[in-house]
Amino acid sequence: MEGNEQVAGREALVGARRVVVKIGSALLTNDGRGLDEAAIGGWVDQIAALHRRGIEVVLVSSGAVAAGMVRLGWQARPSAVHELQAAAAVGQNGLTECYESHFARHGLLTAQILLTHDDLSNRKRYLNARSALRTLVALRVVPVINENDTVVTDEIRFGDNDTLGALVANLLEADALVILTDQEGLFDADPRSNPEARLIAEGRADDPSLTAVAGGGGALGRGGMATKLQAARLAARSGAVTVIASGRQPDVLGRLAEGERLGTLLLPEQAPMAARKRWLAGQLQVRGSLTLDAGAVKVLKGSGSSLLAVGVTAVSGQFRRGDMVLCVDDQGHRVAKGLVNYGADEARLLVGKPSHQIEAILGYMEAPELIHRDNLVVL
Ligand SMILES: Nc1ncnc2c1ncn2[C@@H]1O[C@H](COP(=O)(O)OP(=O)(O)O)[C@@H](O)[C@H]1O
Ligand SMILES: N[C@@H](CCC(=O)OP(=O)(O)O)C(=O)O
C-alpha cells in the first residue's frame, strides 16, 4: 500500500497545474565561481518537460549578485549596498541570458521580471504585477523573477528569494511552491554541522516545532531553512503546498510531479483540502463500495465528517488499505468516495461496529475511521 500512501500524501503536487519553482544562490553558483550553467540547463530541461505536460511554471531565480561578482572579478561578496547593487545589475544580465538561451532550446520564451517589496505591498502595483504575470503565463512564456536588487536598500529588501517565491505563489494562486536548494530538504538539525541530522519528510507549514530546527544559510545563500519555512507559511495562506528539495537530485521536478517522496513537504492547515478534494474527485479507478445507512449519509453530506464503520451496512469488492472506494446509500446512489483505511476483508468484519471495538475485532487499530474526512470527497 506504500504506493497509494505515497500518492495520497503528495497529491497537491501530483495534480498541480501552476507551480512556482525557486532556485537558490547556494545551488546556482558553481562553488562561488559564477553561474553553474550546465546545472541551469538541467533545470530548464525539467521545467520544459513540465510545460509540455501542461503545468505552468513560474521561476524565481537568485544568482544575480554571485554572477555579477564573478564578472567583475570580485573575490568576496561586498558589504556596501551600492556595490551589491552594481554586482546585481551586472549579474542579472548573465542570469537572464543563460535562462533565455536554455529555454530557447525548447522553443520557450522567457520574460525577466524584477520585483521589489513595494511592488507587492502597494495594491495598484500588486494588481499590475499580477495581471502581467497572468498574461505571460497564459501566453506560455516562462517568467523568470528576481528581486530588483539594484534599486532596493537593506531596509526595504526581501534579501532572500524564499519570501519572494512565496509572495509570487500567493500572487498567482499557485498550487505549489518548490524551493530547490543545496540540501535534500529540511532536516531536524543543520546537516552542515550535524552529520546525524535526519530529513523531515512531511510537516505542517505552521508547526511551531519546525521553527526550532530551521537554521540560517550557508556562505552563498541568504536565508537558510528559516526563511524557507517562513516562505512555506506565507505560501500556505493561498493554499499552496511547499516542497523543499535538492536541486541536485536527478529530474527532481519531474519526480515530484509524479508523486515521488523527495525532500520536505510542508502542507497548509486548511486550504490544501480543496486541492486534495479536487484530486480525489478526479480519480477514476474505484476498487469497491461501502453501503451507508441514512445517518452516515447525513453526516457525510452535512458536516464533512469522517466515515465510521458504525454507519456502514455492507461492503462489496476486493480492495486493500489505501484504495479508492465508492460510498453509496441504501438505494445504491453515489454519495462520496475516498481512500479507505482498511482492506475489504477487515472492513467486512467492522460493518456496523463502533470504533472502540476495532482493536478487539481485528487485533489492531489502523485508524478509528474507515475513511478519514481528509481523504473523502462528497460527490
Ligand atoms: N534544519 C536544516 N536543514 C537543512 N538545512 C539547514 C537547516 N538549518 C540550516 N540549514 C542550512 O540552510 C542552507 C540552505 O539555505 P541557503 O544557504 O539560504 O540556500 P539557498 O540559496 O538555496 O536559499 C543549507 O545549506 C544548510 O546549511
Ligand atoms: N536577489 C539575490 C538573491 C538573494 C539570495 O541569494 O537568496 P536565496 O537564494 O534565497 O539565498 C540575487 O539574485 O543575487
UniProtKB/TrEMBL annotation:
Q: Which NCBIfam families match?
A: proB (TIGR01027)
Gene of this entry = proB
Looking at its record, which EC class is this enzyme?
A: transferase
Q: InterPro entries per the record? A: AceGlu_kinase-like_sf (IPR036393), Asp/Glu/Uridylate_kinase (IPR001048), G5K_ProB (IPR041739), Glu/AcGlu_kinase (IPR001057), Glu_5kinase (IPR011529), Glu_5kinase/COase_Synthase (IPR005715), Glutamate_5-kinase_CS (IPR019797), PUA (IPR002478)
Its family remark reads: Belongs to the glutamate 5-kinase family.
* Molecular function as annotated in GO: glutamate 5-kinase activity
Q: From the Swiss-Prot or TrEMBL record, give the protein name.
A: Glutamate 5-kinase
Q: Where is the PUA domain?
A: 288-371
Q: Which reaction does it catalyse?
A: L-glutamate + ATP = L-glutamyl 5-phosphate + ADP
Q: Does the keyword Chloroplast apply?
A: no
Q: In which pathway does it act?
A: Amino-acid biosynthesis; L-proline biosynthesis; L-glutamate 5-semialdehyde from L-glutamate: step 1/2
Positions contributing to substrate binding: S62, D149, N161
User: Where along this sequence does the record place binding of ATP?
Assistant: K22, T181, D182
What keyword terms does UniProt attach to this protein? Amino-acid biosynthesis, ATP-binding, Cytoplasm, Kinase, Nucleotide-binding, Proline biosynthesis, Transferase
Annotated source species = Halomonas gemina
